[in-house]
Design a protein that fits this description.
28% of the residues lie in helices and 12% in strands. By secondary structure, it is of the alpha/beta class. Residues 11-23 have low confidence and may be disordered. The protein has helices at 70-80, 89-97, 119-128, 131-137, 139-146, 162-173, 200-213, and strands at 46-47, 54-55, 57-60, 66-69, 151-155, 184-188, 195-196, 238-242, 245-246. The protein has seven helices and nine strands, in the order ββββαααααβαββαββ.
Length: 250
């Protein structure tokens, strides 16, 4: 039977407006935690099946087992704080990427009880947050600035389905030319959230090398990095599949 939230639990500590923090933002809003928020067929917390309604998962194990559903997560956030003040992931995205509502608080992208999407808010997300849409729509201007300079890594079994957004971004930008995008996409086979393709020291070396090689002509970069070289994997472009390192659980 459908889930329903009939009571609001008052937080023991008042929740201040604003001040949210975020982690793990997807690069394409067509898939946000596995939901296609722009699809008229997927406007609720339930999946489409020929025989029955199936709750949509929001998090999973690498075994494929669901950890919790989209409805459960949104109902939890609503209980923790109304008006997008729970500091949960969906409310964080609403505060950072969404428009301001008529009441002065972040406008929710959907009704947290029913899951019905607000199409005007979803349209705002597309033009202000959807990286794939922004990059592909403005490639004439952005291309010379971004070509070869965007790097993505994600586990193929990301806990929150963020690999879906990365794969969509790869498909969208792979069609770009004048200039070709030449972006880097590293996928950790069978890996979950917080997967890295290299160790943290190697990541810092790669970042320092990237900055030093693109410094303005004549800049003294001798103190910007040590003597270590970035791993060969981190100097590639296009798609790569790797084992990598799991830094911490999620």
């Amino acid at each position: 039977m459908p889930l329903a939230l009939t009571q609001v639990i008052t937080p023991s500590t008042p929740v201040p407006p604003g001040g949210t923090e975020q982690q793990g933002n997807p690069s394409d809003s067509a898939h946000v935690k596995h939901l296609k928020i722009r699809s008229a067929l997927l406007s609720r917390f339930w999946g489409k099946d020929p025989w029955e309604r199936i709750p949509r998962p929001a998090a999973r194990q690498t075994t494929g087992d669901s950890r919790w559903t989209v409805a459960q997560e949104n109902h939890y956030e609503l209980a923790a704080g109304t008006r997008s003040r729970s500091q949960g992931q969906w409310d964080i995205w609403a505060a950072v990427f969404g428009p301001q509502g008529r009441d002065g608080y972040p406008a929710p992208i959907w009704d947290k009880q029913s899951g019905v999407i607000d199409r005007s808010v979803a349209a705002y997300w597309k033009t202000h947050f959807d990286l794939a849409s922004i990059v592909t729509s403005n490639w004439t201007t952005l291309g010379p600035k971004l070509a070869g300079r965007m790097h993505f890594f994600v586990g193929s079994e990301d806990t929150y389905f963020l690999n879906n957004a990365v794969e969509l971004f790869e498909l969208a930008t792979g069609k770009l030319d004048s200039p070709p995008a030449r972006f880097q996409f590293l996928y950790g086979f069978g890996q979950r959230h917080n997967w890295y393709p290299v160790t943290m020291p190697e990541m810092f070396t790669t970042m320092a090398d990237f900055i030093a090689r693109r410094a303005p002509a004549g800049t003294d970069t001798s103190g910007w990095r040590g003597t270590q070289q970035p791993p060969a994997l981190m100097l590639t472009t296009g798609r790569q599949i790797d084992g990598g390192v799991l830094m911490y659980g999620a």
